[in-house]
Design goal:
mainly alpha, 3-stranded antiparallel beta sheet, two-stranded parallel ribbon, 22 helices, globular
Length: about 550
C-alpha cells in the first residue's frame, strides 16, 4: 500500500504518516488548503510600536539566534487566527500535525468580545492540538526499543525515537485504546473548565501533569489583546476571513468543532468538514496582515496606500505580483522595510521572494565562524542555494547547512563545517558513558555508546581552525590528510573529540548492528582499552555484583 502524500508546503509527509491521528489531521489540513511557514526563513516583523507592552518584555520582540538556534517568544509569533502554521526546525516532528491542527480547529472572534472571551477562545483553539501532541499521536506511534509504549517524553529528547517514528506506525499497539481514552478525557476536562469559566467569569484551571492551558490563554491574550481589539484587525477579519477559513463568531460553535474533531481522533467518528478556502486565500491573508502591520507604524498617505495594497489582495488573492510591485513603488517614496524582508513569509511567493536568507546566514555564522572565513563572500551564495533548495528538515541550521555542503560541494570547507556543527550540537549524552567503562559486565559483549558521532573527513579540521586563528596574516596552508574523529557529549556538557584509526572506525560501525564480543571486534587490546576509557564502547549489560 502506497504511503499517503499530503502536498502541504513545509509539512514533511513522513511526519504526518507517523500515526493515524497525525494522518487524519494531515488529510483535513490538505483538504483545507493549509500550509506551514519555515520559521528560520520567515522575517519576523516586530509588530506596531503601540501594541508592545513595556511591562511584559517576555511577550514582545523578534526572534534572536542563541547557541545556533533561532529562539522565539512563546506567544508573539503564534496567532490562532492565522491558518498558516509554523515549521520550526528546532521542534520535534510531532509539531507538524500540532501546528496544522490549529488551522483545522479554527478560531473564535467577535467585535464585542471581552478579554475573557479571547482567553477562552485561545484555550479552545489549543486543546485539540495539545491532546494530539500528548495523547492521540501516541496511539500506534513507533518509538525506539527503550521508549516503546511509554508515551510522550516531555522534556527528554531522543533522536532514536524521532527516527523510529518516521518509519511509520506500528500496526498492533496494545496501548492505543489507552492513549485515545486519555486524550478524550483530557479534552472533556478542558471543555468543562472552559464552560465553568464562561458561566462564572472566574478562573477555571484544568491541569494534567505540566499541561495547563488557562495560564497559556491569559499570556496569549496579554500579548495579543491590542491586536484583537484594534479596528484594523476587525476590518481585516471581515475582508479575509469567514466560515470558509475557520472563523467562529461565538465560543459555542468553536467548542462544537472541538468535540467533533475529538470524536474523530478518539472514536473513529466522521471528522468535521474541511474548510473550503483555497490555499491562495490563506497566503493572501498572511501577506495582507504583514502589510497592515507595517501600515500601523506609518502615517498619512503611506499608511493609506499600504492598506489599499492589503485590500487588493482581498479582492484578488492570487495577485501577489501586483502587491509586490505596488510595495516596491511605495518603497521608493516612503521609508519602509525592504520588500525582501516584508515578503519573506517563510515559503515561496513570487519573483524569488519568500525566504529571509540574511537571517539564515546569521545563524550559520554564529556556529561556523571558520566555515564563514573559508567561504568569505561566497557564504551568501551557498546560503541562498541552501535556503531555496533544502527540504524542511529538523535540526540546528549549522548541522543542516553542513549536510547541504557535504552533499553538494564536498571537500575541505564542507568538512570544516561538519566539524564545527557536530561539536556545537552533539547528540544527547549516554548516562552510562562516564565512569562505567570499567564497570563489571553481565556478559562479555560490548555496545557502542549512544550519542556517538564518527566524522570521516578529508582534512583535519582542528589544524585548519588553528591556522585560521593564527596571529599572522599568512595564507592558510591546508594539508589534505584524511582523518576520522569521534565526537560525543560528556555528561557534564563538554564535548569530547578523539582521533580514531581506520580499524576503530570499522569496529564502531559494526557495533551499530548490536553488541559484539571483544574478539569479534578484532582490535588490539590497547586500542580497545582506549575506546573504553574514552567512553566510546561500554558493556552491553551491567552486573549487580563486583
Amino acid at each position: 500500500m502506497a504511503t499517503p502524500r499530503f502536498h502541504i508546503p513545509q509539512a514533511p509527509d513522513a511526519e504526518l504518516n507517523r500515526s493515524p491521528a497525525a494522518a487524519l489531521i494531515g488529510r483535513l489540513a490538505a483538504d483545507s488548503g493549509l500550509l506551514l511557514s519555515h520559521f528560520e526563513h520567515r522575517h519576523h516583523l516586530p509588530g506596531p510600536d503601540d501594541w508592545i507592552r513595556d511591562d511584559r518584555p517576555d511577550l514582545a520582540g523578534v526572534p534572536v539566534w542563541r547557541g545556533g538556534r533561532l529562539v522565539e517568544h512563546k506567544f508573539q509569533h503564534f496567532r490562532g487566527d492565522n491558518p498558516v502554521g509554523s515549521f520550526h526546525p528546532g521542534h520535534r516532528a510531532k509539531w507538524t500535525a500540532h501546528e496544522l491542527c490549529h488551522g483545522v480547529v479554527g478560531f473564535a472572534w467577535a467585535p464585542d468580545a471581552s478579554p475573557l472571551f479571547h482567553v477562552l477562545a485561545a484555550r479552545l483553539n489549543e486543546v485539540v492540538p495539545v491532546a494530539l501532541y500528548y495523547f492521540f499521536d501516541e496511539a500506534h506511534l513507533q518509538r525506539c526499543p527503550l521508549h516503546q509504549g511509554g508515551g510522550p517524553l516531555f522534556g527528554t529528547w531522543c533522536p532514536a525515537c524521532e527516527a523510529a517514528a518516521l518509519r511509520g506506525p506500528v500496526a498492533d499497539d496494545p496501548q492505543a485504546a489507552r492513549w485515545r481514552a486519555e486524550g478524550r478525557a483530557y479534552v472533556e476536562g478542558e471543555l468543562a473548565a472552559i464552560e465553568r469559566a464562561a458561566r462564572t467569569g472566574d478562573l477555571a484551571p484544568h491541569r494534567h501533569a505540566t499541561l495547563e492551558l488557562e495560564s497559556d490563554g491569559f499570556a496569549y491574550v496579554a500579548s495579543h489583546l491590542p491586536r484583537l481589539q484594534s479596528p484594523v484587525f476587525a476590518r481585516f477579519l471581515e475582508r479575509f476571513h469567514g466560515p470558509h477559513t475557520g472563523w467562529h463568531r461565538d465560543l459555542t460553535s468553536l467548542a462544537d468543532r472541538v468535540r467533533q474533531l475529538t470524536a474523530a481522533l478518539a472514536d473513529g467518528a466522521p471528522p468535521p468538514p474541511a474548510w473550503p478556502a483555497p490555499r491562495s486565500a490563506h497566503i493572501a491573508q498572511d501577506v495582507a496582515w504583514r502589510l497592515l502591520e507595517v501600515s500601523l507604524d506609518c502615517g498619512g498617505d503611506a499608511a493609506h496606500q499600504l492598506q489599499r495594497l492589503a485590500d487588493g489582495l482581498a479582492d484578488a488573492p492570487t495577485d501577489l505580483a501586483g502587491a509586490v510591485a505596488g510595495y516596491r513603488a511605495l518603497s521608493e517614496r516612503f521609508y519602509l522595510p525592504p520588500a525582501e524582508a516584508l515578503f519573506a513569509v517563510g515559503y515561496d511567493l513570487v519573483d524569488g521572494l519568500g525566504r529571509d536568507v540574511p537571517q539564515v546566514v546569521e545563524g550559520i555564522s554564529q556556529i561556523c565562524p571558520h566555515t564563514e572565513a573559508l567561504l568569505g563572500d561566497h557564504l551568501d551564495v551557498e546560503a541562498h542555494r541552501f535556503v531555496h533548495g533544502e527540504a524542511p528538515t529538523r535540526g540546528p541550521v549549522a548541522r543542516r547547512f553542513a549536510a547541504w555542503l557535504h552533499a553538494h560541494d564536498p571537500g575541505v570547507i564542507a568538512d570544516v563545517c561538519r566539524y564545527e556543527a557536530a561539536t556545537a550540537h552533539p547528540e544527547p549524552s549516554d548516562p552510562a558513558a562516564e565512569g562505567f567503562a570499567d564497570a563489571p559486565g553481565a556478559d562479555t559483549q560490548l555496545r557502542r555508546v549512544r550519542g556517538l558521532e564518527v566524522l570521516e573527513l578529508s582534512v583535519d579540521p582542528r589544524a585548519v581552525v588553528d591556522a585560521l586563528e593564527g596571529d599572522d596574516d599568512a595564507p592558510v596552508e591546508i594539508s589534505e590528510t584524511p582523518v576520522a574523529l569521534a565526537v560525543r557529549r560528556r555528561a557534564g556538557g563538554d564535548v569530547l573529540v578523539a582521533e580514531l584509526s581506520a580499524d576503530a572506525v570499522a569496529a564502531l560501525e559494526r557495533l551499530r548492528a548490536g553488541p559484539l564480543t571483544p574478539e569479534a571486534l578484532g582490535l588490539p587490546t590497547a586500542e580497545l582499552d582506549a575506546l573504553r576509557q574514552l567512553g566510546l564502547v561500554l558493556p552491553a549489560r551491567f552486573a549487580l555484583t563486583r
